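Many introductory courses stop at the sequence. We go one step further.
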Amino acid sequence: MTTSRSTTSFLFLLMLGMMGNGLLVAASEEVMNKSSNLLQSDSFLHQESPQGLSLQERFLLAETTIQGLTENLVTARRESESFRKQFDEVTMCLESFGVQELKNSLEGKSDINSDNKHESKLLAAISDLRLLNNENEKLRTHLIHLSEMMIACLKNSETTDSSKNLKHIDFQKELKIASVILERNLKTDKKSLASFTFGTIIDVQPQLSLVVADLGLRHGVNIGMPFQVWRGNNHIGSVKVVDVRDNISGAIVQNANMNTINQITTPRPGDQLRVDLYRATTFIP
């Protein structure tokens, strides 16, 4: 029974969306066919009609016909836009309340318990939206401060050591706050997503000098973004993102450091990725 109702609602939505497009296409084809037949036909221009109309009169009749068809086309466009809006509204209701609630709404039925449930949903959604807006505003402010401090640190690299240390401490503080907010915003119901500034290598293709990381578009990663590779406290090398998907990204190994016995150390699964802040200042996504 539920499957039958779902199928009926789906067919109703499909017919409602296609109705406007059908009117528009039919009117457009009618205008094109009538215009072509009236203006390009040799028999229309050179043969006498049964009523004995002159050539000028036939042209006036053609212009009147085309004007009428144009008005029909405009009306069809308006109706198509109206049907499209109705289709969008019905689709939104279907996604929000389900098939049964949509059916009750169309039939004019109302349920007090259902209304209370929808009101609770709306209040919860508004509350969540306010919290997210507050978090985004805090994050935006900290990121602006972080960017300003990075630029200031790079411009004033020749200042005294004490001034450098103070700016470095402030920079670390702002970076930590921004990272905490980002990690909090990227949490899901079952597990937290990797943070924007830290990730993990999950696969390595040595023959292609390619690594796969657990950072993707959902974490704010873009093509060209540079990362440092770390294994514990040891800096292994650097990589640059060349391909990004929703939850993962692929990066090319750009350079690898030498270990204690002068051998090149290559990245491997489990190594940590950190955004290369100094190279990122010249990166434009």
